[in-house]
Amino acid sequence: MTEEPLMCAYCVTEPGAGSDVAGIKTRAERKGDEYIINGQKMWITNGGKANWYFLLARSDSDPKTPANKAFTGFIVDADTPGIQVGRKEMNMGQRCSDTRGITFEDVRVPKENVLIGEGAGFKIAMGAFDKTRPPVAAGATGLAQRALDEATKYALERKTFGKFIAEHQAVSFLLAEMAMKVELARIAYQRAAWEVDEGRRNTYYASIAKAFAGDIANQVASDAVQVFGGNGFNSEYPVEKLMRDAKIYQIYEGTAQIQRLIIAREHIARYKQ
Known about the structure:
This protein is α+β, with helices and mostly antiparallel strands and 273 residues long. It is built from six helices and nine strands. α2 (121-155) packs antiparallel against α3 (169-197) and α4 (203-228) packs antiparallel against α6 (256-272). It is elongated and about 80 Å long.
């Protein structure tokens, strides 16, 4: 994958199912040595660039079947007949990201492309988040760091009332708050990643890191715009883009609200044991 390089995409989200992963409608019907897949995915990062997809589809048609047995994960080559890649979406921020909808119409996938086994897809998809949320939190922290850097440099150049705005307590305290949030977010994602390195389940720490870093990225970017004043609202300066780019960190890879559900569940479970 690294030598080619081969790109992949994570096809789970659908137009009507984001946080509610168990509500996805894409179907995989077993016919002989193949599965016939039909459905639509949405907001797929790398959708137009990927060589292959991880696809989560419902393989058990019984609505009473629990999620941990009803879904199967597949590896699907992007050039498989029946796959239709939609247009690149023009989003609020992170516009370099190739984000698209993907339709699967009678797509034939050999049984050898099933990951682990039929019915294991939901567990695979949920387990992947424990590994992906720390680096997403790292990205949010990086954005916040850039916003802090830009705001600090500007505060040491811009003068009001005869002195640099960084010398006004109101601005210096704002920068201090931004710095606190950035450093705490950095520690949070590093702790979540360290738990993986130690071979431990990191669900609790991964969700804390993702939720906190996503929130502070938005707060710090907004504060950076405030430090820039009217200039911050203008596209000639870098911080308005950072503010737009930050918002998605509270949405993708599990919304800020879903993270809090997970954190609460994990926290309370510790005290029940």
